[in-house]
Amino acid sequence: MATNKKTNNTNQDFKSYTKKFWKLFIYGMGAIVLFFLFASWGLFGSMPSFEDLENPDSNLATEVISSDGVVIGKYFQTNRSQLKYSDLPKNLVDALVATEDERFYEHSGIDGRGTLRAALSLGTNGGASTLTQQLAKQLFHGEGSKFLPFRIVQKAKEWIIAIRLERQYTKNEILAMYCNVYDFGNYAVGVSSAAHTYFSKTPKQLTVDESAILVGMFKNSGLYNPVRNPVGVKNRRNVVLAQMEKAKMISSAEKERLQALPITLHFKLESHREGMATYFREYLRDYMKKWAETNKKADGSDYDIYKDGLKIHTTIDSRMQLHAEEAVAAHMANLQEEFFIQSKTNKNAPFVNISEKETNRILMQAMKASNRWYVMKSMDKSEDEIIESFNKKTKMTVFTWKGEKDTLMTPMDSIRYYKHFLQAGLMAMEPQTGNIKAWVGGINYKYFQYDHVAQGARQVGSTFKPFVYATAIEQLNMSPCDSIIDAPFTIPVGRHHVTATWTPRNSNNTYLGMVTLKKALASSINTVSAKLIDKVGPEAVIKLTHKLGVKTDIPAQPSIALGAVDITVEEMVAAYSTFANQGVYNKPQFLSRIEDKSGVVIYEPIPESHDVLNKDIAFAVVKLLEGVVEGGSGSRLRSTYGGNGDHRWTGYPYSLTNPIAGKTGTTQNQSDGWFMGMVPNLVTGVWVGCEDRSARFKSITYGQGATAALPVWGYFMKLCYQDPELKVSKKPFDRPANLSIKVDCYQAPKIKDTTAVIQDTDEFEF
Asked: Can you give the pTM of this predicted structure?
């Protein structure tokens, strides 16, 4: 009996324990289910909605894209670019899956085997986060709390989001999203930015070992940064390669070969102040700020160019832009060397023929406009204290054409040093469309932010004369072959609003007598331009010039015939393009369309154009401008002989034999040098000069447009012609049918080539 009683007690105890176990199990499971339900309902903190999962806030950089599909710049707070799965190289995808989540294609967001392994080993045998969980953390939570209870809640939310992501997206889309959101350091977020920053490549161009380096950084981009820790990065890369071999993605021999390779970088930090088309990108940035004020999202909110991942498709051609930047850099470095040589004998360099008082005024103005002055003023320093600091030597890095240089000088000396630098502006445009193809606003945006294409209007000298000739041909029914007398000429007081007798003279003080209009423009004869504006009146010339797109307020004085007018490079190129486009003006166009981050077009500009001249008159002006290149100051584009200053004609001899229309311009005292050059499908304007008009060459040899600006155009065109994909025309300008104006003038046969000694003679004097 005692035995049976003992057995019964044992059975009752077992049943009691079993009942308690199942009760505890059920309650526990219920608690876990409720825990996950509460987490999914957002009771432990907000959870992403369906819309959030569809459109995660990924803080994308806006990309500036050239007409040939190259990303030439970005606007960003976080440098992140969106990639599709098809943009990723297979070797990077293989490396990522092999290293971070070997069962990625098998699970549905949570790796059960990995979770069990991690739980049993208490995390000592690796974590269990899948790529999808890591994506959930990156997109919606970040690193989160290290406090264990909060961390458990965080992990639960990651699981829920991961499952939702797996339902919402394909495996390939998840991989692409993960590659888009990871921060690789050095302002590079996402594989696209990382590939450009560390290797100067697109993702598709990455080699296996380069992909392994980036995948290795997914573990800890701060620790495995190839710039700061090349040894650690190499070790981590080799681990990734070993994982790829283990997954049979590469062979053992290939693994050993790749592991032996050194870490090779082409590191280039992406910056707003560096890279291609910096001046254009800054102009575009300002435009986009204004655009965003009048163009809203569908929900009425504002676009943010730093976060919304817009794709701004521009008309700039990246190849032509690089050619333009190379041409400007090559010639300006060459010409600058001459400027420094000549400055050594000038005690007031770089200024010429100005008083000490005027020099001090210029330097003081620059001092007060400097960042140093602004910072010290904000520190409540007195003017005397600030000025004193400008005369104390300090360490600084300065710009030179041979690279940045560390030196010791006073801030005031640095101001005078930078005043020495010749600046430049270049713009190239298709006359038939108005599409701007190249834009170089200066010599180095990091050190000189002023844009000499759209921002800086300068006196245009004799490049204004074609507007006078065009008015005369239209108003007086003249032709390039009509003759006019080159002789001393005076406009008396009272005529055309002249307040003092005006007697323009030719730059060389000589007169040729009877000349054709074509010869007069080719030789840039001042008296002929003065006579023509006297016949038509300044008002008629101003009216035509404004129709050509020039917005400058032009004084109704006959002196404008010689170029006493400030105009931007952009406006001059548009005006000359009207002649090349058979008299039709096209407003310069730099945008083709803007897309949102999903590729939906949200804006397309409407081209603006209007008729200015009939085809015959426009063609007559083109023929006049061809005469400048055939026998005037632009003839060195044809010549193979040297002349004064030929060692500064960068890229010479140009030996261009195709039809070219152009005009040089040199303002009074050689403060500004211009060249406007045209072929049938490309018009390019170049300006060269110092920031201050009193900083200049002493003589016309180097200060004239034919030496200062024309070589940039010649070098640029040579590069364009060497690039057949650009299809820059070498054909003649289209001749209108039934041309009513005589343009083919008789020319006496040449005895010998005299182009070697032709000087630019189109500077004006009053």
From this structure: 0.80
